[in-house]
Amino acid sequence: MCNLKAKKNRLAKRDESFKASVNEVCARLRLLLEESVQKNLTENMLFSGGVDTSILATVASKFVHLRGFTCAFEIALAPDIKYAKLMAKRLRIKHFIHYFNEDKIFEVLPEVVKALDSFDPMEVRNSVTAMIGLKFAKDNGATSIMTGDAADELFAGYHIFLRLKKEKLSEELRKMWNVMTFSSIPLGKSIGIEVKIPYLDPDFKSFAMDLDPQYKIQREEGQVWGKWILRKAYEDVLPEEIAWRDKNPIEVGSGTTILPSFFNKRIPDSEFKEKKRKYLESDKVIIRDKEQLVYYEAYRSVLGVPHPTDPKGRRCPQCNSNVPENATVCRTCGAYPITPNGSTITAESYANKQKPFQRNSNGVHGSKL
Questions:
Q1: pLDDT per position as a tens digit, 48-59
Q2: pLDDT band for position 98 (cuts 50, 70, 90)
Q3: Which SS3 state, helix, strand or coil, does residue 252 take?
Q4: Is CATH 1.20.1440.230 the right assignment for the domain spanning 2-257?
Q5: pTM > 0.85: yes or no
Q6: CA of 22: how far to CAs of 215, 227, 335, in Å?
Q7: I want to staple 196 with a disulfide (CB 3.0 to 4.6 A). Which of 40, 80, 93, 219 is the partner?
Q8: How many CB atoms lie within 10 A of CB 47?
Q9: String of b and e for 20-46 (b: at least 16 CB within 10 Å)?
Q10: In whole angstroms, what is the distance from residue 66 CA to residue 88 CA?
């Protein structure tokens, strides 16, 4: 009985100590992020209404009359619209919403694949919305714009992290940090709009990287959450449905997640089989599905057939582009995983791998509205 009581006392003290440290970490996080936002301040933001952009908007709106730009595929369900509207009203942000159609997607595709040097379906599917949003903002007078990029990478926001133990989580985060890039930067550069990313400010980035993983993944109200400390730091100023909104990639939030089925219906099976055979024979490129076929033809039209820039370097077995020695994913075509012996999964297996966040720890570009 005494041992049980002593154990309860130790657990209570540990909980009290953790709560005190959480308060300290939250205070430090808010201070550094406010400094970062001021250093990267602009009146414009790509705005999804997710926790990351909502936090930035909350901070930035204290210093400027913020304008938020939200985009959605007009024929799809796009949950970002609901949440972005909620936060825009709450913060009195001037909110611009753009519903784009399939013509707009085909219009920006060549620009997207050229800027990213990629026809990876997962990458292009997310980046199409980002490019449309950047151009929409520029058409409305923006010359610079903030994004919520990097919060998921720094604070373990992706679902694949939730089941990892502390040591493995630290290892996987370090791997991601070594290779993470964000498509909004080259996309913005390609159209002449400066992209500012407050979460990547050196001081804030260092703070996040040095933070004990126990603050990044925690259980709250019976559920395990990524970006836990970021949510806790601002839960008193954000609506509950925003602070504890589940993580969605751009494709889900904007509706471009339907593009695979959209292209499957649009392209006849006979046409796909013929073009798949043609590009394998003429270009030595393996086309995995109809969506990738569309992106590859856009890529081919603006950049030509993919080829190794270093003939002696390691090559992707599906498109012949060079890949780093330790890479498990090809940034050009999205082949995954590339094994040490140069093989990749089959087209059928690839379809089963196409889950949100499945490949982020392998260095796939990220971007966020």
A1: 999 999 999 999
A2: very high
A3: helix
A4: no
A5: yes
A6: 8, 13, 41
A7: 40
A8: 32
A9: eebeebbeebeebbbebbeebbbbbbb
A10: 9
